[in-house]
């Protein structure tokens, strides 16, 4: 059975300029232990998807349709206090900027202990400290016990992200949502953090939604990949399927942009054009203006098809 099942989720922002359909009818499911990658260019609706699951959509935004089933509950029906109990414990997050998760004026030890005690008030202080140190060791932070007394600025970017990952794992989450967790890091550190996350998800048997604009990164650690475009999932399949046999012209375009596997620097052609405004979406397929295959049919109605067991939103495959 799925740990998380998102059905027809729609999250819109009601701005002065109009209704921004940031997420407009997406479906996906996640099994325990599975790593799902959500990939797509900036503004596609990836972060809004994550925030919707976390119950963190604020005015002018609102979930206007769909369900988010998690361990037998529909999260869209939770009260703010019920959500607060789940967030940081059963569902935890790692964001791009460790600054959003770490308070600059509090030692990391105190932050870890407080995170732990918020959800497990029965724990003794000493025990919480031990647990926090243990977790810092698990994420590979050298001199973990001494680091407890450090402030975030005393750590490098990669170390801070390790601390954030430790914090996310403290309360044994069943689901981890990581939004561009390695985007701010340089390539070597990025590879280390990716490897660490993959190992930890396995060790903890938790599930991970890994959000990134970079298919190269997503393809390194994900079991399943959802390709998002203009608020919708245009292709959804296993990592192997998506990488070796992409069906949607947008996915094909993303793959053509990947650096060549042979290590040569040649980059193939980027996808021409830009994503349509979410305020003013065209009729039919949202990708048609950039698509080499588009014809009159693509102007008429939005595509939704199953091709070889895979969901692909394209009339032309
Ligand atoms: N608070 C907000 N108010 C208005 N529009 C928003 C808000 N948050 C996000 N959006 C819009 O939702 C769309 C999707 O954003 P986002 O999910 O952040 O994209 P990304 O795929 O880059 O993570 C964007 O067009 C963005 O402008
Ligand atoms: Mg984002």
User: Compute the gyration radius: what is it?
Assistant: 20 Å
Question: What is the annotated CATH architecture of the domain at 4-90 and 171-283?
Answer: 3-Layer(aba) Sandwich
What overall geometry do the principal axes of the alpha carbons give? globular
Averaged pLDDT, please? 94
Kindly report the CATH topology of the domain at 4-90 and 171-283.
Rossmann fold
User: CATH superfamily of the domain at 4-90 and 171-283, called what?
Assistant: P-loop containing nucleotide triphosphate hydrolases
**Regarding CATH, which class of the domain at 4-90 and 171-283?**
Alpha Beta
Spatial sequence of strands, sheet with the most strands: 6-7-8-3-9-10-12-11
């Amino acid at each position: 059975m799925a740990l998380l099942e998102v059905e027809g989720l729609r999250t819109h922002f009601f701005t002065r300029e109009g209704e921004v359909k940031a997420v407009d009818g997406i479906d996906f499911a996640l099994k325990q232990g599975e790593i799902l990658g959500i990939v797509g260019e900036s503004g596609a609706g990836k972060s809004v998807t994550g925030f919707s699951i976390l119950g963190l959509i604020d005015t002018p935004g609102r979930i206007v349709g769909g369900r988010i089933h998690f361990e037998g509950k529909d999260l869209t029906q939770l009260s703010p206090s019920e959500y607060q109990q789940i967030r940081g414990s059963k569902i935890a997050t790692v964001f791009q900027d460790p600054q959003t998760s770490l308070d600059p004026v509090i030692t990391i030890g105190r932050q870890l202990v407080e995170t732990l005690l918020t959800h497990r008030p029965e724990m003794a202080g000493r025990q919480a400290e031990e647990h926090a140190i243990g977790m810092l060791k698990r994420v590979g932070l050298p001199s973990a016990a001494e680091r407890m007394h450090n402030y975030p600025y005393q750590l490098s970017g990669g170390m801070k992200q390790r601390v954030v990952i430790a914090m996310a794992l403290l309360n044994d989450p069943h689901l981890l949502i990581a939004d561009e967790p390695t985007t701010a890091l340089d390539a070597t550190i990025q590879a280390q953090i990716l490897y660490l996350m993959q190992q930890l998800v396995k060790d903890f048997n938790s599930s991970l939604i890994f959000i990134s604009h970079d298919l190269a990164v997503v393809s390194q650690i994900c079991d399943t990949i959802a390709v998002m475009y203009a608020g919708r999932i245009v292709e959804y399949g296993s990592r192997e399927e998506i990488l070796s046999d992409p069906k949607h012209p947008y996915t094909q375009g993303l793959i053509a942009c990947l650096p060549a596997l042979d290590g040569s620097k040649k980059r193939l052609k980027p996808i021409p054009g830009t994503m349509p405004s979410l305020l003013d979406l065209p009729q039919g397929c949202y990708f048609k203006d950039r698509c080499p295959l588009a014809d009159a049919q693509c102007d008429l109605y939005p595509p939704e098809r199953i091709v070889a067991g895979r969901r692909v939103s394209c009339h032309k495959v």
